Every structure is written in structure tokens, then in C-alpha cells.
């Protein structure tokens, strides 16, 4: 295990789908209902020749655009503290939400290294959201489709120098 990557972000952006793809097993729950998976899950990830530890975060409560529930915040902070690198995931189809901005603030203050990812970016539906993500001030987003396995080479390019 060369490093630990925490996948963070509000519910329903596709964190567990990405976790499952990296770990290659259905360890994390994926659900169509926002906020259904709850817990911190760790797994051994493989991405081409990279081997690392990955943490999936989930929150009991749904996150609205106006509030970020304490449990979700605490879980995220725990994951950030356990991790060497945070992969901050937003939903490119939904665009940047108020909750995303709260997570961005937490990460800016607390995380050593943040990679921004705009997920659900398959096709063209995610174009606007991916552009919007620049406004988070966390650099250029990589465009992912966790569900379809797109953008994994860009994720690799981001992780490789840090391994
Ligand atoms: P989490 O709450 O952030 O862990 O999100 P999940 O991984 O549970 O995914 C939430 C929903 O988004 C599920 O219905 C997934 O199938 C869907 N989803 C995840 N990744 C993608 C993607 O790349 N593209 C699309 N279109 N949907 C996705
Ligand atoms: Mg999840």
C-alpha cells in the first residue's frame, strides 16, 4: 500500500460506484437513493500498476443544498485525516451545489492533497458541470464516469506521481 486515497463528496455523486470499480468487489453499497450508504469502508485498490488503500465515505443523512449534516461532516473529516490524498467527487450532471462548496471548504482547510473529479461525465451531459467545477478553486477537474469506467487513465495520471 503506497498511499491511502479517500473518496469524499456529498451523497449520490458516485463515490461508492468508483470505490467498487477500484476495489473490484461489491464491498460498498450502491443505491439509487441519495444518502443510502452509510459508513467508512476501506479496500485494497488497483489501478493499472498502482496498488493503494481506498476509503469510501458515506453519510446517514441526505445533504441538502442549505445544510451539511454533522455526521456527514465528521465522517468526511475522519476520512480526510486517514488519507494521504482526497478525491473530491462532484456530480457533473448536477453541477456544483451549495453542499459541494461546503465540502470544498473542509478539504481546502484539512486535506494535504486534493484531486477534484467531475463524475457522471460520460457523453456530453456533464460538460457544463465539469466547467462549473473550476469555480471550487481546487484546480482542474478530471472527468470521470465511474459507472462506465471512463477517465480512469486521467485518475491514474494524477495518482502516479504521488505514489
Ligand atoms: P454515492 O452516494 O456518492 O456513494 O453514490 P453511488 O455510488 O451510490 O451512486 C449514486 C447513483 O449514481 C447510482 O444510481 C449510480 O448508479 C449513479 N452513478 C454513479 N456513477 C455514475 C456515472 O459515472 N454516471 C452516471 N450516469 N451515473 C452514475
Ligand atoms: Mg456511497
From TrEMBL:
Q: Record-annotated residues binding GTP 1? A: 9-16, 56-60, 119-122
Residue ranges annotated for the EngA-type G domain, each copy included: 3-163
Function statement = GTPase that plays an essential role in the late steps of ribosome biogenesis.
Summary of subunit composition and partner proteins: Associates with the 50S ribosomal subunit.
The UniProt family comment states:
Belongs to the TRAFAC class TrmE-Era-EngA-EngB-Septin-like GTPase superfamily. EngA (Der) GTPase family.
Q: What is this protein called?
A: GTPase Der
Recorded source organism is Seohaeicola nanhaiensis
**Residue span relative to the full protein:** 1 to 163 of 492
Amino acid at each position: 500500500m503506497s498511499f491511502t486515497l479517500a473518496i469524499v463528496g456529498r451523497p449520490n455523486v458516485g463515490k461508492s460506484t468508483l470505490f467498487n470499480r477500484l476495489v473490484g468487489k461489491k464491498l460498498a453499497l450502491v443505491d439509487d437513493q441519495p444518502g443510502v450508504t452509510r459508513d467508512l469502508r476501506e479496500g485494497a485498490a488497483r489501478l493499472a500498476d498502482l496498488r493503494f488503500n481506498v476509503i469510501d465515505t458515506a453519510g446517514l443523512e441526505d445533504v441538502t443544498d442549505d445544510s451539511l449534516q454533522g455526521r456527514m461532516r465528521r465522517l468526511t473529516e475522519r476520512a480526510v485525516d486517514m488519507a494521504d490524498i482526497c478525491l473530491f467527487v462532484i456530480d457533473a450532471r448536477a453541477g456544483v451545489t451549495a453542499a459541494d462548496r461546503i465540502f470544498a471548504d473542509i478539504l481546502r482547510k484539512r486535506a494535504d492533497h486534493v484531486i477534484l473529479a467531475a463524475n457522471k461525465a460520460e457523453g456530453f451531459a456533464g460538460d457544463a458541470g465539469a466547467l462549473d467545477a473550476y469555480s471550487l478553486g481546487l484546480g482542474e477537474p478530471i472527468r470521470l464516469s465511474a459507472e462506465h469506467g471512463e477517465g480512469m487513465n486521467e485518475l491514474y495520471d494524477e495518482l502516479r506521481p504521488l505514489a
